[in-house]
Design goal:
Largest sheet: none
Order of helices and strands: HHHHHH
């Protein structure tokens, strides 16, 4: 079921489709984050990514709750966007030999994923709000806030903790 197929007839259908997209995305992130964690050399970056891996597992649990509230079975549908972002992260991280440049690349790749998640959760929240699903909005907002916090932490490691500065020197 693609985004612009006839399978989506109502706003409820659109919301469920978007939730399936995010369920798949979060599941793929749980599988791919350990690779980035292994590649990272900066201690704070490694810790931040490890912490976010645990948050992501909790986000999947919240998505399970959202599906249940909507009377749906939790499931994902393939998301070419997240597959592309993860593939790009793997490719870029595999091409960088300098460890400090590698850390900057890992941060950039992780932030690309965070920005995608922030955009998708924002949209899902808007749709759920329009449908009067405050119970769903609360759960999705918690996920969104965690994604925004993760992005901010990555920026902090890149800028204030000097990863980008070290990579440039």
């Amino acid at each position: 079921m693609g985004l612009f197929t006839k399978d989506i007839k109502t706003m409820d259908d659109l919301l469920v489709h978007g939730l399936k997209d995010m369920y798949y995305a979060e599941s793929q992130i749980v599988k791919s984050l350990p690779k980035l964690i292994d590649k990272a050399t900066n201690r704070e970056l490694t810790k931040g990514l490890s912490d976010h891996l645990e948050e992501t597992k909790n986000q999947i649990t919240r998505l399970d709750q959202v599906f249940k509230k909507l009377g749906q079975q939790p499931q994902g549908i393939q998301c070419p966007a997240i597959d592309g972002l993860i593939s790009e992260a793997d490719q870029v991280a595999g091409e960088v030999e300098d460890k400090q440049v590698l850390d900057a690349a890992v941060i950039g790749a992780a932030q690309s994923v965070e920005h995608y998640e922030i955009a998708r959760y924002g949209t899902l929240i808007a749709w759920a709000d329009e449908l009067g699903r405050n119970d769903v909005v609360r759960l999705l907002t918690t996920n969104l806030n965690e994604e925004k916090a993760a992005d901010k932490k990555l920026s902090n490691v890149a800028l204030r903790k000097g990863v980008n500065r070290k990579a440039a020197s």
